[in-house]
Amino acid sequence: MSEHALLSASSAKRWINCPPSARIESTMPEQQSLFATEGSFAHDVAHMLLAEYLGRVDPIGLAEWQYQLRSDSLWAEDLLDYVRIYVDLVIEKINAARAVSRDAVILLEQKLDYSLWAPGGFGTGDAVIYADGYCEVIDLKYGKGVSVSAEENPQLRLYGLGALNRPDAHLYSIENVTMTIVQPRLDSITSETISADDLLIWAQDEVRPKALLAWEGKGEYCAGEWCRFCKIKHTCRTRAADALALEAYGRTKPQLLTVTEIADILGKAELLISWASDIKSWALEQAERHHVTYPGWKLVEGRSNRAYVDRAQVATRLLDAGFKSEMIHKDPELLGITEMERLLGKKQFAELLEGLIIKPAGKPTLAPDSDRRPAINSLEAAIADFADQEANL
Ligand code: SF4
Questions:
Q1: Which of 112, 201, 296, 317 has the lowest CB atom count within 10 Å?
Q2: Cα dihedral: 90, 91, 92, 94 (round 10)
């Protein structure tokens, strides 16, 4: 698992706006999502392509690297196409830097230390370029979830600080830092250029005081759009209070909501909906994976639809039974199960297609105790399973 700073650059927006979030989040287990794994694979591919361009890997090493990446289940031609968008941009910037300084420095996947302003703070710069008077930090974001702008982006600015903090910055008398985010799957490339002086003022005035609070687990909790990736967003009371702010409308007069109030409610409704949906998915995951029980609620099998086991066999059986092809098909597909049952009638449907229809288990869901479905893993479910098995013998 990769090393991770408490005051990481990727969570900077959160700990700058809500300093105590850093310490409380660190008590939660790390979870590597499939998206993160895919993102880190895309970075490996980009690193290899740029190392090849810069001649930093010998032919045998390159062949081995390529073989290793191409053998990975995540390898895909479209991933390569997307990564090339980032790689081409970096190459363009390398060439521009070399036009300014023949000995421009290019760093790939380097640690950028900004611990002067945030205790223990460091991150990894995907590509950093130094040329006379300026420095470029280029960040690849492979996800396709949210578009992120480089403008006033704390993560990129912290990388910029890390870049300023390296000896190369002094050798090239850096005056300006340009930070770029490339999101190839969202067709988005954004940049911010800031003077080194302004970046240092931001670090001293904005980052340092918040970082010290965050490091000590102090400061005020504060909810906002930065809660989105917070590990405690499901159970955080500050976020709950923020989401439930609309509740105050139920306690004021006059009886009818005004147009202005409704306009305000519309603005806050999205937050309430997303908070409620987070709570639902969190509770389901806790019940399913960690056997947490919620008073008045139980885990049940969700609804599911019947499906054909083998479409070709269904068609053969029905044709053998005398049905014409045009009756049982809605070109070119076999009729859906409900339509087929209507055509054959319940009795004939059951007889002719015995063994060819299944009802897959539904996805678990939380339901109130009053729901008629048995709780999963309960005695009733075990008996029902046993009865099903007996009936199928
Ligand atoms: S959910 Fe939001 S308010 Fe709560 S700790 Fe996380 S960032 Fe702060």
A1: 296
A2: 90
Residue 262: count of CB within 10 angstroms of its CB:
11
Number of domains in the chain: 4
Q: What is the pLDDT of residue 272?
A: 93
User: For residue 10, how many C-alpha atoms fall within 13 Å in the half-sphere facing its CB?
Assistant: 12
Residue with tokens 């590597």: 32
> CA nearest 9: which of 234, 173, 145, 211?
211
Radius of gyration of the chain (CA): 29
**Which ranges of the chain have pLDDT less than 70?**
1-3, 377-393
Please give the pLDDT value at position 392.
Answer: 47
47 pocket-lining for ligand 1 (C-beta < 6 Å)? no
The whole-angstrom separation of Cα 327 and Cα 330 is 8
| pLDDT tens readout for residues 260-270 | 999 999 989 99
* CB 239 less than 6 A from any atom of ligand 1: yes
Cα of 24 to ligand 1 centre, how many Å?
A: 9
Indicate the residue type of 218. K
Cis-peptide into 332, omega within 30 deg: yes
| pLDDT at residue 146 in the model | 87
Name which residue sits closest to atom 4 of ligand 1, judged by CA. 236
For position 1, what pLDDT does the model report?
Answer: 42
- Ligand 1 centroid to Cα of residue 21, in Å, is 6
Cα distance between residue 148 and residue 243, in whole Å: 23
The CATH number of residue 170's host domain is 3.90.320
In terms of domains, do 324 and 199 share one? no
Give the pLDDT score at 383: 53
Give Cα separations from 340 to 307, 316, 350 (angstroms): 12, 14, 11
Task: Report which protein residue has its CA nearest ligand 1's atom 7.
Answer: 227
Residues 6+ apart with CB under 8 A from 227: 14, 18, 233, 236, 239
Query: Do 141 and 29 fall within a single domain?
Result: yes
pLDDT given for residue 393 in this prediction: 43
Query: Domain residues for 392?
Result: 293-303+365-393
